[in-house]
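Hi everyone, sorry if this is the wrong subforum. Our group has a chain we'd like a structural model of before ordering constructs, and none of us has done structure prediction before. Sequence below.
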Amino acid sequence: MFSGSPPVHLMWSSMYNPEKQKLKRRVDWRRLGELFRPYIWQEIQLTVCIVATSLLGLLPPLLTLSIIDKAIPKNDFNLLLLDVGLMLASALISGLIGVYQGYLSSFVGESIIRDLHTRLVTHLHHMPLSFFAATKTGEIMNRVSNDVEAVDSVVTMTIVAILTNVFIIITTLFAIFALDVRLAALSLVLIPLMVVPLWPVGRRMYDARKRTRAKRDEMHSATQETLSVSGIVLVKSFVKEELERSRFFKLANELMKLEVNVAMVGRWFLMAITFMITAGPAAIWLIGGWLAIKHGVTVGVLVSFVALLGRLYTPVSSLAGVQVQIVSALAVFERIFDYLDMSEEQDALNATELKQTEGAVKFQDVTFIYPETKRGVRNLSFQVNPGQMVAIVGPSGAGKSTVAQLLPRLFDPDSGYISIDQNDIKSLTRASVRNHIGIVMQETYLFHDTILANLKYAKEDASEEEVIQACKAANIHDFISSLPEGYKTIVGERGHKLSGGERQRLAIARVLLKDPKILILDEATSSLDTENEAAIQAALEPLMQGRSTLVVAHRLSTIMNADCIYVIEDGSIIEQGN
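Answer:
Right subforum, don't worry. Here is the predicted structure as tokens:
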């Protein structure tokens, strides 16, 4: 929490409400179709493969008819050999096509999942800071990871299953009507009984799946909060392991019940379909047998017909199951699109790039109020001349850190303006403004990676010499060199393998590599002891040279060398001097 701001859970709740940002309609099928558009050529090949395997699947039943009604009665061994050979050939060719079909299906499906993953993560990177403060990290991770993975089977297998089953049904209908119209008509009687109940079953599945995904959000949030380094330290220090076990078990138990409900949706319906798959051929054997006895239908036709009937009823039942899966997946797609439809940070239509700057910063009558708490800054005016160090001091909650957040456009003022070199920052792109600003916060964030990787996050193409010089200037090079792995040392989750002072000096070295013209120090030494503070102060001196520096601080020692000091209280400047 920033020292100059109200509590996070209060100050963001009214500024950014994810629920209000959600799309208030169901998923548009055309929108789903757009995911497949880049892979149209692979989809055409996939369709050709499906048609080919569907046609080849007709051969074994038809060849069976030839064997029973022609080859065996006529003692024609050559015809028998030909029919059996064609059966084997059709199976082999169909299998080879199926291998390529499986590759195409996986390629298209996994490519779509990759695109959806990338698109979602990229979109979230461009969301305003208020979104992340208002939304639990566990929920975000659940949507990025589990929700996208949940639709994997739909885009990799289900779409192919639909096309395959549709073509099998079409080709089978032609075949059974060609064999015997009477038996074909009888076969179609059961199909409406398989299809009609799909809508209510799908509706229930959709509702049940939405509830389970919401409960998973709660579980992931609870897991993320208690299993992070900071969270587990809190749990252990208050001896709350048993309490957290009970809380997690309650959530897990609620999820278990919801998942059981999902599993049971449509089970009676699926049982009925399974019965019909058996009842259909039984009816054909009964009626077909009577026709064979009384009206001359051949045994070959009857056997082939029953074999083809499996190709008719099985795809119909599969489509019934697929429909339920798709309706279930739509609930997940809706959650993904909810996030994708939330507003990103937007630059002005004619925003320009800030290419170079002298570092002159000016706040003119700036007002920014957090709606719910009515706290912030009011009519704030001050300036930082190029190369000057200006300090902002005041009690906790006075608005100091709000100032530090307004300059890099983490938020924009409600009124007034902020300028860099006489350019209103609202007329500049956010990226170009932030490129010229370096920030050292009270709590340094490091990735679970090597020291070198964390340093190069500021400048990917930094040379080894540049990295070493930055670390020397930040008084951290000797410490890094003393480590067994040196710059390749893994810093651990959030850098917790290092001390607070070491993390802070790494942050300073990282900003030195960025080499910004404007520097913001937001309580950069407030959490350190006197010895570490002295080391950080020594590291800050080369960092501030030649840069316009805005210092937010509590301690007098931090601002002793400031060119100008502004005292803020209740969001307004009440005193200034040096």
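For your construct planning: Residues 1-25 have pLDDT under 50 and may be disordered. The first helix runs from residue 8 to 11.
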